[in-house]
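Re: the request from the purification team.
They wanted to know what the chain is likely to look like in 3D before they choose a buffer screen. I agreed to run a prediction and write the result into the notebook, where they can find it.
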Amino acid sequence: MRIFCFPHAGGSASAFRSWRGLFPAQATLVPVQYPGRENRFSEPLIDDMPRLVDTLMSELPLTAGPFVLLGHSMGAAVAYETAQELRRRGLPGPDRLVACARQAPTAHRPGTVHHGDDEALVAELHRLGGTPPEVLADPYLRRAVLDVVRNDYRLAETYTARPAPPLDCPVSVFTGDADPECDAADAAGWSAVARTPAEVTVFPGNHFFLFPQRRAVVAALMSALALPTAAATAWPSTP
């Protein structure tokens, strides 16, 4: 079972680096890298949802066996649209969609953060947490981060889900109990885009709960997939 993980706005594939080693042999972590960051830094950023999904569809091995689509925040919307695009193309869909820290596409709330100046973007990053202060304190890193954040907020805030049939696969929703963007009621709203009620799990933490709570999150995911959790790695007995 491959677990494709779509990062948050301003995020990259390395956001899921700390998840490596937490999966059993029956599951494979596949972090998704959007254009314009890390090893794809030289590529243009994409601020349009259909174009981003079309780009990812041409790159990801989505037809090579069973898979799950998991997205965090903006990534949850990208994962959902990827599932719908697979349906439109007559391709097999995911075994499960896992949405983290985002309300359902049908309850999208437009925003204007991407119109703000740099200080407004920095204030938003501080509000949500998850961005190390030292990154924003470094002029070069700050510029690179804010360019990506502004692009991704433009994508997320202008995105509107197209009318589409409910997803055939089960939907799990993970959220933090102190997330200002997605509470338990928001999470339950994902039932509107699925044929069966969404399965909601609430973890301790804010918008970025899934990283400090990564072991519990991966364990919940494996339970939903009826897979075992990874065996604990023993420390070596010699130096």
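For the purification team: The longest strand covers residues 67-72.
Please add any questions underneath this entry.
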